[in-house]
Amino acid sequence: MYKAPRGTSDILPQEQGYWSYITQKAIDIACLYGYQRLDTPTFENAGLFVRSIGEETDIVEKEMYSFQDRSKDRLTLRPEGTAPVCRAYIEHGMHSLPQPVRLYYFADIFRYERPQAGRYRQHHQFGVEALGDSDPALDAEVIDMAWQLYANLGLHNLSLYLNSIGCHSCRPGYLESLTANYSKRQDSLCPDCRRRLRLNPLRLLDCKKPSCIPLTEKAPKSIDYLCQECADNLESLQELLKLLNLPYLIEHRLVRGLDYYTRTVFEIAPEGELVAQATIGAGGRYDNLIEQLGGKPTPAVGFATGIERIVLNLKKQKVAVPAISPPFVFLAYLGPKAKYEAIKLSALLRKSGFSVTLTYGDRSLKAQLKQANTAGIRHALIIGEDEVNNRTIVLRNMDKGEQETIQLDKAVEKLRQAIGGSTRH
RNA sequence: GUGGGCGUAGCCUAGCGGUUAAGGCGCCAGGUUGUGGCCCUGGAGAUCGAGGGUUCAAAUCCCUCCGCUCACCCCA
Fold this sequence. Notes:
The protein is of the alpha+beta class and 425 residues long.
């Protein structure tokens, strides 16, 4: 038996209510802030991700789904959403549009990881990118969008963590100080941290081992090493967040796993859970990325959120999402002549805008009504030999258990009346 | 890649050495010659994750593998 590949899953009909709810809210937010949709391919040239995410990162080193196609091109299923957007920005000359260019996307994301709660090999993200402006007001706008999205979704008790990891001019000084600080205590470091010290010192701050936490707390903070410009930026961002009434926490241990981030980085997670796996959305500024990918120097800021993690939290917080409506009417028939009429009528009903379903296996009326009932369909049309001969049909209200015989050619009209309080048909 | 937990019909669970593997939900049919929800009756559906071993006898004990799951690394 075939099964869905490890770390992937089917999104079943009973789950779709969450997905359409989230998708719709996300589109609403994007429109509200004037962002336009951009869809990029599911796979890109491998080099795009290697160059943008960074060679030394886990994603590039061991998590990419890469393959060679028949023309020997090295391709990769996208492991994140920002680099493709930047590629499209450059490729389509979007620098000649009024700046900033505001874009949003929904994308499948692929990473070869060991699956666990809230982590999959294929997952889905909604993301926004605002390209072509370095003003911290744009950072604030993106953070605000994220925050409002969660609020509109009905999620509560979330925390916004904020940090600045500086720019190319001030970060080296900070890294030096951080490395020096940790080198002195090398003996008391966990094995992972010793590796981080060599490969990716920023990540030292991420360690959750009880033995390392005191070190992370005493470690130098990036915000103390910011150059004037970065410091000013962070300062005005904070002012703007206050202006927008967004509660935030400066978290100096917050660093992001991708190399392209500069200055602002942020994460939104359930209160008190600053662990990577709990994060439902994250983002930051990436002022050097577009230039690095061959475009003109273009500052930019973005944010992405995992749909699966939103679903997880909606369930955890018991947020009720609107159910997906069943068809408006169930068409039941008895006998071959009636079947013929029923199929003809179903076409007419659909043409008139009524969602209608029927079962074709010539089953008993009992079975057909049972099916309508199970599906939550509130109106049934019943046609048998007698009705065909009289050009009539029975309209049954499934909630009330009442029914009436009507003229067959009045079915559409009668159903229109039956809509009553229903919002959808 | 490392470690823990778990694999019995579509789903949930019982059985933990001894005949045809049991129950609930769901599905199908009948009770009602053309009427759903409640009830009653019946039916279909399981090579007990796979392979090997121990034994007169294995779903049950042992080994290996596979899968799921949780955690670590790291990420949404």
